[in-house]
Amino acid sequence: MVKFTPSFNRLVGELAKLPGIGRKTAARLALFILRQNSEDSMALAEAIKELKERTRFCSCCFHFTEEDPCPLCTDVGRDDQLICVVEEPQDVIAIERSRSFRGRYHVLHGSLSPLDGVGPDDLKIDGLLRRLQHNTVKEVLVATNFDVEGEATALYLAQLIRPLGIKVTRLAHGIPTGSDLEFVDEATVNHAVEGRREL
Question: Are residues 132 and 161 in contact, defined by beta-carbon separation less than 8 angstroms?
């Protein structure tokens, strides 16, 4: 059996921690990196280091950013009366790609999942409720995923927000049930945003 160097095995182990990357793919990636010239390999390492050092979550919407507050929160062309609530930062990117939404965002960083031990205190719900106290928000669009956890989160948020006198809407079901927003095409997201309904 061929033995690899400890440094090679370490890189394979780290790459295999990435989502969707098994040990075989991790080994192929490690071999690719090994074959690259030192300049390209170091550029990759520097990019990862810079990402970890400079990127943080916005103190207002909890999307990732290098500036606080983030460019989405400081954009004067956005509608302060409308907040779109999503599960993850990649969902913001999916909705922005559709060019159908011009309000503000709030990222929960997950969804309610009692079986996995994820409750309301594990999400950025308190930050959302603080934002809603300023009396400028008229509508909250809940754009959580259309799976069991996403639906439970949407219903929970609606119960919290409706008593504040704020309209709560949900994306239309143009998005297939069980799908994640980040994998849905722009046209479908656009249709879902335009056809949103009140919860």
Answer: yes
Mind listing the pLDDT tens digit for each residue in 122-153? 999 999 999 998 879 999 999 999 889 999 99
**Residue 176 buriedness (CB in 10 A; 0-12 / 13-18 / 19+):** exposed
CATH no., domain 6-54:
1.10.8.420
The whole-model pTM stands at 0.80
Tokens 């280091």 belong to residue: 49
- CATH class of domain segment(s) 64-198: alpha beta
AA letter at 52: K
DSSP letters, the chain, are: -PPPPHHHHHHHHHHTTSTT--HHHHHHHHHHHHHS-HHHHHHHHHHHHHHHHH-EE-TTT--EESSSS-HHHH-TTSEEEEEEEESSHHHHHHHHHHT---EEEEE-SS--BGGGTB-GGGTTHHHHHHHHTTS---EEEE---SSHHHHHHHHHHHHHHGGGT-EEEE--TTSPTT--GGGS-HHHHHHHHHT-EE-
Query: Closest Cα partner for 101 from 1, 6, 198, 189?
Result: 189
Strands 139-142 and 167-170 turn out to be: parallel
Q: Domains of the chain: which residue ranges?
A: 6-54, 64-198
